[in-house]
Design brief:
Elements (H helix, E strand, L loop, with lengths): L1 H24 L26 E2 L2 E2 L2 E2 L4 H6 L13 E4 L11 E6 L2 E7 L16 H8 L3 E5 L7 E6 L7 E7 L4 E8 L11
Antiparallel strand pairs: 1-2, 2-3, 4-5, 5-6, 6-10, 7-8, 8-9, 9-10
Length: about 200
């Protein structure tokens, strides 16, 4: 009887330890964990449920065909679309926030444009962030060019890592904060006028 109590007590202690250890290990999971600055990079904001990176936004991936994306229920068809280059939008129920545009070039996803604060990069960067914050997140991976239309504004360009070669993220700023951003393949992601 005493050995059964000891065994039962040991099981309870082991269970409590396992629960405590699991909860301690999971602290901070709501914060950015994939960024260039490692797990929970210094002071980074939370990552959106569907974050943007050089390769795409959730299930909408750069390089996938429009036909596949429409058949998967990710993008809407645009019957008046220009075949060389045009924008389409996520389908209702695709799990992608509003104010996201998808550039299609010759039938394939070339880039994804974000005009909403509810989407972040996988590193936690978003509309409204200061230029200094973008610099702190992307550090040496950042190239800065003057904005073509906004006096004092910039294009802050993050080129893809080796796994995302030929792709980039471009943050547009007004000289102080991010006003919109996009990600996708080069050269399309750097086209200032979109498809114009």
């Amino acid at each position: 009887m005493t050995s059964q109590r000891s065994l039962r007590g040991s099981c309870v202690l082991l269970t409590l330890f396992t629960v405590f250890a699991a909860s301690a290990c999971n602290r901070g999971d709501e914060r950015a964990v994939k960024g260039r600055n490692g797990p929970n990079g210094a002071g980074h904001d939370s990552v959106s449920a569907v974050p943007l990176n050089e390769d795409g936004l959730g299930p909408i991936q750069v390089g996938m065909t429009l036909v596949d994306a429409v058949n998967m229920g990710l993008l809407n068809e645009n019957p008046n679309m220009k075949k060389e280059c045009d924008f389409v939008f996520p389908a209702v129920g695709a799990g992608v926030p509003d104010n996201v545009g998808v550039m299609i070039v010759k039938g394939k996803v070339a880039r994804i444009d974000v005009d909403t604060g509810s989407v972040t990069t996988e590193d936690g960067a978003k509309i409204g962030d200061t230029e200094e914050k973008i610099k702190s997140i992307y550090d040496g991976d950042l190239q800065i060019e003057p904005h073509k239309y906004v006096t004092g504004g910039h294009y802050m360009i993050v080129t893809g890592d080796s796994a995302s070669a030929g792709k980039a993220i471009v943050f547009e700023t007004n000289g102080k904060t991010v006003t919109n951003f996009r990600a996708g393949r080069l050269p399309e992601v750097k086209w200032v006028e979109g498809c114009s």
